Backbone:
DNA sequence: GTAGATGCAAAGTATTTGCGACAAG
DNA sequence: CTTGTCGCAAATACTTTGCATCTAC
């Protein structure tokens, strides 16, 4: 098991407050990709005094620190996910909103190659697939 | 040369107003990916009476009709681009904001394959590469 | 002539921020 | 102690919408 968010904060010199600990805990326990509102709801159940401004401030801080990553899927609010060693992209079910995480090394390699081709070093990328479930035959 | 936006509107039964004609013209002439504000600025130079609400309404309509496509690049406003037969993705220079359009058939194929693997039919996708220019050696 | 489009300003969302009070290191 | 954080409410940024008027077909 890898570092917890708390450990990452310490490692990166981010001051740990009660609020941040709660937000960290909720994000760690989330297997989905909550938006700020949803995160705020979950956090509020643990400590109702935490304000949504703090949630916004914290996810932004965690994102800048490389603890969380932000997704802006089509036509929705920003959603967050814990960033860990294993990079993956997303396949989104356009009907249900279900999100499937996947990894495809070959696509990763090709992306790097495309960037090189134009004289760039790839520093980041975003790949989202939108699909509809096939009828099981 | 392919259909103009006006022709597409007629083909798709979209009523052509003066405002829409101006917006169509500006988008046709744009080689970049303007956001609504920028589009509104350009449109205003031709007809200053067109309101930004109309610009919003029109890009939305054009998007739904398959005339324009909307991009939500990292941390910015929505940007629009004319949709034509040739699909492409984007490589964004993180320093300058410059956007390079590229096509990579192999990546396209692999995306479809990934979707299939999870039992989905790919209906849409988003691929954005973010890079920094290499020093020319 | 009529359904749909426009302009305006007001209302919605999502997110950020100023400020005085408070807490972590 | 001192610097940075929090909660609150106000502010901002982007986008949508109600309504009366106007226009394309």
Residues:
């Amino acid at each position: 098991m890898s570092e917890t968010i708390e450990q990452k904060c310490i490692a990166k010199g981010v001051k740990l407050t009660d609020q941040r600990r709660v937000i960290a805990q909720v994000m760690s326990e989330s297997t989905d990709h909550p938006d700020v509102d949803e995160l705020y709801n979950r956090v509020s159940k643990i400590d109702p005094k935490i304000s949504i401004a703090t949630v916004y401030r914290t996810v932004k801080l965690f994102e800048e620190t490389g603890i969380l990553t932000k997704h802006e899927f089509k036509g929705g609010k920003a959603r967050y996910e814990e960033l860990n060693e294993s990079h993956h992209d997303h396949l989104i079910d356009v009907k249900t909103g279900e999100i499937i995480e996947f990894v495809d090394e070959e696509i990763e390699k090709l992306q790097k190659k495309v960037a090189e081709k134009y004289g760039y070093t790839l520093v980041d990328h975003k790949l989202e697939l939108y699909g509809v479930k096939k009828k099981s035959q």
